[in-house]
Amino acid sequence: MDNRPRLFLTAAFLCGVLFTLGFKDFYPDLERRFRRRRSPADTLVSAGLDRIDLEDHTKTQASDKPAHVEIPEGIEAAKGYLAHICMPSDQATEKSDLLLKLGAVVDRVPPAPIIDPMHFVNRARSLAADHTADPKRPGRGYFADQFENQANWKAHFDGTGPEIFQQCGGKLDAFVAGAGTGGTIAGVARFLKPKVPHLRVVLADPQGSGLFNRIKYGVMFDTLEKEGTRRRSQTDTIVEGIGINRVTANFEAGRELVDDAIKVSDEEALAMARLLAEKDGIFVGSSSSVNCESSQNLMSKLSDERKALLLHGLHDSWDLETGL
Fold first, then answer.
1. Mean pLDDT in residue range 233-261
2. Which among 193, 182, 196 is positioned nearest to 153, based on CA atoms?
3. pTM of the predicted model, to two decimals?
4. Which pLDDT belongs to residue 68?
5. How far apart are CA 122 and CA 98, in angstroms?
6. Are strands 260-264 and 200-206 parallel, antiparallel or unpaired?
């Protein structure tokens, strides 16, 4: 009896196993290279007044990390750059802990007004300048400037907006989003508004932020910011990630396209977060609960025919130890 077909099948199976094991070793590198080729050049990392060529340290980065630490893909893993993150010290520690685990250097600075040199934005800018000016340190520092760098809203115009339009088949009546840098709401609004003329773009704003009044009345002010009433030296709210008391270039890029704004108190945000956890099994952070509360508010105002509501921003973790 001829056993050649059986031998061929066995050989093919063994070759397949060997190929799979070998492919697992070099596939991650192929994937990284593919992503670098297809990613848009106009991003926060690459966009600047002067175009610069940055070295790719991917091949040598593994030796710079402890052997027992596996760094997920990100700017450090994909490009080999040192990520130095500055953030206010009153932000949830889970955020800085995650960044540390991803291999970044985290600088938690006391909350301060934007005019203070130690404000986290100014601190990041000065660190980048110091790195570049130091002849003993290799390379140069790059300040991403996510609040003012208009590559921010452009990334959402090129990415988030088209994704929303495609996944909804162009059938949506409202887009609700909070704003920190303002890049998301501006970029998405600039993409969607021309394609969906009846679309309502609504800002979800926490208490203490001035953006609500910026949309409603054209001024940047909140009653909680008046002298003698503030509890914190930044936006007076427990909500993290959204809400601000200054005008940013990214927000202004789409401000005229924002149709309305909804103010959400800390108590309302906390109640929504607990409702989502207890009734739906969804654990969200403070900015997401502000978006949900605003969406619910808007839903009650829309007609039954116009409740294809899109909610953006279920992405933050949140420390609930607020005393509320």
1. 86
2. 182
3. 0.70
4. 40
5. 23
6. parallel
